[in-house]
Amino acid sequence: MVQEVGEARDDRGRQNAHHDQHHQHLHQRHPSAASFTHLCLPVNALVHVVCQGREKIIIQTRYRDAKSLDSTAHPSKTTVQRQSSWRAAYRKQNRMVNNLIFPRFQSAVGRQRGFTLVELLVTIAVAAVILAIGVPSFRGTIASNRLTSLTNDLVGTLAQARSEAIRRGVRITVCMSTNGTACATVGDWSAGWIVFVDTTRAGLTAAVDAGETVLSYTQPTPTNTVVRGGASVAQYVSFSSDGTARTLAGGALPGGAVATLRVCETSTALPDATRARDVAISSVGRVETSTPATVSNACAAPT
């Protein structure tokens, strides 16, 4: 027992001598690190100093005899306790050194997690300018696309009616309709329209009589878009079996050789020069579109 105590004292004496020698050598090579060495010099530890410039010093510790302790087949209880305490001291000292050496670096990382008030205000100002420039132009694009789409729908309906009249060899009529089953006699074409087989052609206004078939129905036009017809096509357009446009009585279109339906956008997003499209139906049944020179947002019917 006395011999073991003596050996332990000799071992501690050698370790302390090694500690003093290493501390003196470290102080000579890195004077700025001398104030940190007492934090990272536990018993039986090697100290490695890596200099980055003159101000930043990274101090790491590594156990000198960790391998020999781990490789021991049957370590004693005292050895295991000593090894565990060294590891705990190693982790604690590393945290202390990092907090002392890198406080500025850690605070800089924390500041990058958000935006300053100035940055936020600048971003909002730039977004407001972009929206102020882009939104009016975007509204005009939407209105123009809506106008073009509705004009194409109307031209397609007239072309379908003429084609069906020639194919079937019967009268086909297109009239205003609010419900998709009957012709309307008041209002304008904005309420919607239907295409039907008109075999009776009774009266001066178009009507779906018993036994007549509705071929298609177009729903009411979008908001701010209207469709209005001239005097000869205010309520209907009718095609005979040879494809020509006729009145219900079978005569030529009144008011000249061309009847006009106008598709118009009431929104102020479009200027007067581009807010309307005229759909002209000739007496031979040909359908053409054009842009009138100037139409106000009241969108009056063509004359």
**CATH H-level superfamily of the largest domain:** minor pseudopilin epsh domain
Rg, Å, rounded:
47 Å
Question: Share of helix among residues?
Answer: 25-40%
Give the class from helix and strand content and strand pairing: alpha+beta
CATH architecture of the largest domain: 3-Layer(bab) Sandwich
Mean pLDDT: 76
Number of helices: 5
Strand tally, please?
Answer: 11
Fold-level CATH name of the largest domain: minor pseudopilin epsh fold
How much β-strand is present in the residues? 15-25%
Q: List segments where confidence is low: pLDDT < 50 over at least 5 consecutive residues.
A: 1-5, 30-74
The largest pleated sheet is described as: 5 strands, antiparallel
Total individual domains: 2
Backbone shape: elongated
- Order of helices and strands, N to C? HEEHHHHEEEEEEEEE
Descriptive account of the structure:
- This protein has 2 domains: about 100 residues, no CATH class; about 170 residues, minor pseudopilin epsh fold (3-Layer(bab) Sandwich).
- Helices cover about 40% and strands about 20% of the residues.
